[in-house]
Amino acid sequence: MNKENTTAIRNEILELTKKYYFEKFRNVKFEKGVSHVNYAGRVFDEKELINLVDSSLDFWLTEGRFTEEFTEKISEFLDLEYIFLVNSGSSANLVALSALTSKRLGERRLQQGDEVISVAAGFPATVTPIIQNNLVPVFVDVDIPTYNIDTEKLKHAINEKTKCIFIAHTLGNPFNLEKVMRIAKDNKLWVIEDNCDAFGSKYKNKYTGTFGDISTISFYPAHHITTGEGGAVCTNDDLLSKIIKSFRDWGRDCYCASGENNTCGKRFSQKFCDLPYGYDHKYVYSEIGYNLKMTDMQAAIGAAQMDKLSSFTHDRKLNFSKYNEIFAKYKKYFILPEATEYSDPSWFSYIITVKHDAPFKKDELVRFLDSNLIETRNLFAGNMTKQPLLEDQNYRIASDLTNTDYIMNNTFFLGTFPGNTSEKLVYIDEKINEFLEKFE
């Protein structure tokens, strides 16, 4: 192999990749009534494409140099010691909750029949790991207009079976972390922050995802940064970090990084359970684990995206404020969203609720917007307990889900992501005005 030749060829490929980006993806024009206004999507430049091609030329298909770079950037951003990249945000949630079932946690481990508090007005990936681990989800109602868990009802939902609180920061709006963490401490409960929709949000000037015992992030294209498919599990706890890594990596007891051997120096000199003495530590399994790792090509994209997270957050906040201006003219028809007290959200979207006495239904407005190529979304599952997925499952509803039901019928959201430029927001404003002027 001629190193000089391969380096020169590589550099030429990367330079052509940059040119390709500007020819293929740059300066896409927006045309009213012709171009779609998406609620979310990937925002990138030549750097992501160059990193992706650069990684592919290594043909190192599992964790590698870009995985290390991406992990370090997340760790520095959140000021957390342990970051484990996985293949999706849903996998991150599965690993996070599964980790709390480990025997290594002693009396605090989650066991079959234990209850985990969540909300029904959310996304299934926060609830399905509870069921998959033979635990019982307990659904607590949410507040409007923050769309986060009602902390007063949370207090009353706790009983002797409650072991964990597993909730998301709804659409980027932090839940009341001060109250939730106090309740958890008083009752000795684990807290998992589903930070998938809120990467970059702050509560009391501290990033969400840094308060709970474990937090999760999603890098799906709709989220704050993307790797296509991908996610992360985050913690500052030494023991939890070892358990999380084990569940992510087949359940194995060994903590060697990919491509490394005998990091502990005891690979062939330990005794485990009924295995023979000295059985290769790389093939000792202590948890019921999976293989949920991210590839280095995905991490290559993420490493470039991390450099844009702060600017993406700025754009999301700006778009949110523009939506506020659009809908503030029609407060008699809508409940406008509000940030949780002491929080600074990096808004995943702009969530809006139609008032019960409005002269139109949510579905009428949503259909009108859709006919004009403006995407909307419901608050995910609406009321999870009414979804087919829970039809034959064991769960508990704490008190009532009055606001959750109202949200299911009257709430939708629009996109705040950086790809929704000013001209798109102007178009949305025009169409909202067009729909509502007949009721004025």
Q: Can I get a quick summary?
A:
The chain is 36% helix and 13% strand.
Structural class: alpha/beta
Instruction: Please describe the biggest sheet, giving its number of strands, its sense, and whether it closes into a barrel.
Output: 8 strands, mixed
Task: Please tally the helical runs, counting DSSP H or I stretches of 4 or more residues.
Answer: 13
Helix coverage percent of residues?
Answer: 25-40%
* Tertiary shape: flat
Rounded to an integer, what's the Rg over CA atoms?
Answer: 23 Å
Report the mean per-residue pLDDT as an integer.
96
Terminal CA distance reads: 75 Å
DSSP strand count? 14
CATH architecture descriptor text of the largest domain: 3-Layer(aba) Sandwich
Total number of domains: 3
Identify the strand order in the major beta sheet. 1-9-8-5-4-2-3-13
Write out the CATH superfamily name of the largest domain: Type I PLP-dependent aspartate aminotransferase-like (Major domain)
- Contiguous runs where pLDDT drops below 50 for at least 5 residues: none
Q: List the secondary-structure elements in sequence, H or E.
A: HHHEHEHEHEHEEEEEHHHEEEHEHEH
